[in-house]
């Protein structure tokens, strides 16, 4: 078997808040309706659908992660410099994201971690070639 595409699906409390957050960070909208808002990420246009939680529960058989206790996944967003990591930090703070890891060095790279208003976790990483 061979898959042709992969995307992510998350549950959120408030579609308007989620749409505003990811729009303020500059991600490209990929459509929305009364049950979801969707964005593309990166040069490859990786898609993340954000479903309203009550609609999303069918896909996970009613079970959803408690993001206050842990996380389901952390997506990494690439940055082209340390300065760009700091630009992302300011943008995330201004958009209402929560910083869970302050900017710091990691091996030969540099990153910080944030969560969106629903607790979905991301990091922004500069990794020199």
UniProtKB/TrEMBL annotation:
Domain VOC: from-to ranges: 4-127
PROSITE patterns: VOC
Pfam families associated with the record: Glyoxalase (PF00903)
UniProt protein name: VOC domain-containing protein
Native species: Flavobacterium bizetiae
Domain of life: Bacteria
PANTHER family to which the protein is assigned, alphabetical: BLR2520 PROTEIN
């Amino acid at each position: 078997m061979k898959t042709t595409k992969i995307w992510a699906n998350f549950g959120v409390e408030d579609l308007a808040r989620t749409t505003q957050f990811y729009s303020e960070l500059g991600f490209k909208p990929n459509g929305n309706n009364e049950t979801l808002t969707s964005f593309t990420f990166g040069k490859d246009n990786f898609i993340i659908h954000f479903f309203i939680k009550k609609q999303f529960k069918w896909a996970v058989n009613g079970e959803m992660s408690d993001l206050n206790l842990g996380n389901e996944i952390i997506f990494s967003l690439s940055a082209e410099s340390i300065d760009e990591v700091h630009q992302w930090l300011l943008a995330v703070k201004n958009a209402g994201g929560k910083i869970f890891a302050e900017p710091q060095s990691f091996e030969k790279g540099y990153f910080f971690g944030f969560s969106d208003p629903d607790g979905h976790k991301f990091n922004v990483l500069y990794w020199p070639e």
